[in-house]
UniProtKB/TrEMBL annotation:
Pfam family of the protein (one): YqzL
Species assigned in the record: Siminovitchia fordii
Stated name of the protein: YqzL family protein
InterPro entries: YqzL (IPR025617)
Top-level taxon: Bacteria
Length: 48
């Protein structure tokens, strides 16, 4: 999701997309700093 958002921002320069990008970065950083026991379970469903 991050890479797609970055590509859209790079092409458009849209400030809203940039702010979304920063939120994604913040969320990713928070997920990486949580102890393993506190991380939510992620279920990956196949895309058909």
């Amino acid at each position: 999701m991050y890479e797609f958002t970055w590509k859209v921002f790079k092409k458009t320069g849209n400030i809203d997309i940039y702010l979304l990008l920063k939120e994604l970065e913040k969320e990713e950083h928070m997920m990486n700093t949580l102890p393993i026991a506190d991380k939510p379970d992620v279920i990956n469903y196949p895309v058909s």
